[in-house]
Design a protein that fits this description.
Length: 304
Amino acid sequence: MVLQTFNISISCARCGKNLMLTDNTTGERFCGKCGYVISERIDESGPEWRSFTQDEHSNRARTGVPTSLTMHDMGLATIIGYENKDSTGKPLSASMKNIVKRLRTWDSRSQAHKTTDRNLRHAFSELNRLQDKLALSDAIIEKTAYLYRKAIDKGLVRGRSVLGIVAATLYIACRDSGTPRTLTDVSSEINIKKKDISRCYRVLLRELELKIPLVDPIKSISRIASKAGLSEKVERRANTILKNAIEMEITSGKDPMGLAAAALYLSCLMNGKNTSQRVIALAAGVTEVTLRNRCKGLRVSLKL
DNA sequence: TAAGATAAGAGGGACAT
DNA sequence: ATGTCAGTCTTATCTTA
């Protein structure tokens, strides 16, 4: 009684009748005889660009039609139209108008839910994949999901990429629970630039008023050590080096992975191990230059 | 080949205007 | 809100042992 339709000349792929109709509210084409739907909406939500500055934001034009349709329901759900007429074009009675009005309200509310639901589905399926790739615990995933829902509630996802926020929330969850995963780790798995993730990360931190503990470089040591195949002994020595460095307050502002790598390298030298800077830097995910700079700092301050 | 040095460039925080 | 500044890390290239 509420679909507005008009004819187009395509025959139905299922029953062959030339009775194709288009619902001009959803843009969906279907057969007037058997109801077969021949065109579906493309599953895509959110803008395909992000703006980082106000200027960019105002200059950027939205490409494509900003319909709520593609975002809501993939064109497959029924939307209650806005004309108070029945299927034969006759006006509705007053009491029926009231009923339809209330239906519309609930209809639109359920549509809104579908938007966030789909957003969540998208985000969570990616999250599942990342859990495997990064070997993360269920607790981390739960925490990420919780943060992600909060981000949606606060409207922080709008205008940013879903995956960027997923990556950022995941990174926060790791940091918060002391699981050593670097931004680089997350970035390479989800295929989003570190730059973009860290932008999302900072926004989330600010808007959700989160307090994230600093990365403890000592925790990073064992991870690097096992990756580079270093001995327990070397690892212990590196621990004491770092502890001293932290006490001397020469570690703030430095990349914890770089510090850990440098401590390990120095520890190798002390233990008479000939592990190259290259190997350790690679395992730590920093450059050799950074490792060298940290080494220099540690050597000077700790008089090694 | 490994290690060290140097320079240019990017991104972000602190601070002043 | 915008610009500048010092400090950090990265990439690339060259030199040295």
